[in-house]
UniProtKB/TrEMBL annotation:
The keyword Amino-acid biosynthesis applies. GO terms for molecular function: branched-chain-amino-acid transaminase activity. This is Branched-chain-amino-acid aminotransferase. InterPro entries: Aminotrans_IV, Aminotrans_IV_CS, Aminotransferase-like, B_amino_transI, BCAT-like_C, BCAT-like_N, BCAT_family, Class-IV_PLP-Dep_Aminotrnsfr. NCBIfam families: ilvE_I, PRK06606.1. Acts on leucine, isoleucine and valine. It catalyses: L-isoleucine + 2-oxoglutarate = (S)-3-methyl-2-oxopentanoate + L-glutamate; L-leucine + 2-oxoglutarate = 4-methyl-2-oxopentanoate + L-glutamate; L-valine + 2-oxoglutarate = 3-methyl-2-oxobutanoate + L-glutamate. Pathway: Amino-acid biosynthesis; L-isoleucine biosynthesis; L-isoleucine from 2-oxobutanoate: step 4/4; Amino-acid biosynthesis; L-leucine biosynthesis; L-leucine from 3-methyl-2-oxobutanoate: step 4/4; Amino-acid biosynthesis; L-valine biosynthesis; L-valine from pyruvate: step 4/4. Transmembrane segments: none annotated. The gene is ilvE.
Amino acid sequence: MDDRDGHIWFDGEFLPWREAKVHVLTHTLHYGMGVFEGIRAYKTDRGAAVFRLAEHTRRLFNSAKILGMRLSHTPEQISDAILDCLRHNELQSAYIRPMAFYGSEGMGLHAHNLRVHTMVAAWEWGAYLGAENMEKGIRVKTSSFSRHHVNITMCRAKANGNYMNSMLALKEAEDCGYDEALLLDVDGFVCEGSGENFFMVRDGMLYTPELTSALEGITRDTVLNLAAEIGLPVRDKRITRDEVYTADECFFTGTAAEVTPIRELDGRVIGSGRRGPITERLQSMYFDQVEGRRESHPEWLSFVNEE
Ligand code: PMP
């Protein structure tokens, strides 16, 4: 990752990719206290466009507020940096990673006097869970790791440290030959994937877990909007694992994962064992939306070369 051409925005200036480095005593590296975002830009007829830039920027600042971190830039400066990063690297489509983290001014758990640094990197990245799986669907394993309790690390924050839990769950699932993990909450109800929100279709109704300890996904919100547009009834409720086994269709949503069908959970085939018709409809609407082929929600696209 670190050895490539291009530029990374770091504290207000663009640095050559290989030179965007930090010290080994960087505080966030030691304790995981930092916040980040995952954003995508898509190629459209009007050039590259960042999808839901305002919402991602807002979530970055909300995550920082939850952790009590004071960012050194304004939301406008960060949004501009994201658009500049795509221009600078001449990217038509990209995954974009902004992150705010504490510097190396001190060690120990006290965070006063630490400088907050911010970076934005962008690179081309295809389907996160595999291109062929967008049609075939993925195989998922219920994790032996629970999602965080709401009073442990606070799940509304997209915080670096929260992802240790995600990585443990993903590794366990992969080691068992699955593609992704499904994490339950501390009460045993379905919560989310390691980096995705969860949806299920039963008898023509779309269900998604209450957000309690899941991240408030922007793709989740997009899919809820698309479902409303086609008159698909939606309920958020506590979901049990056996309801998932007997669902008609299931899928994950996320900026990286987009809309990824789930074909199996814990060795139980879901529905027909491939992408279901409602998943397919929402997935194709999603791609039409992010690639600028729909008329609704023009405010969701920030065109990189039109300002
Ligand atoms: N849950 C977790 C734990 C995630 O990391 C992500 C990815 N950001 C999501 C859900 C989906 O969120 P979004 O749709 O905003 O990418």
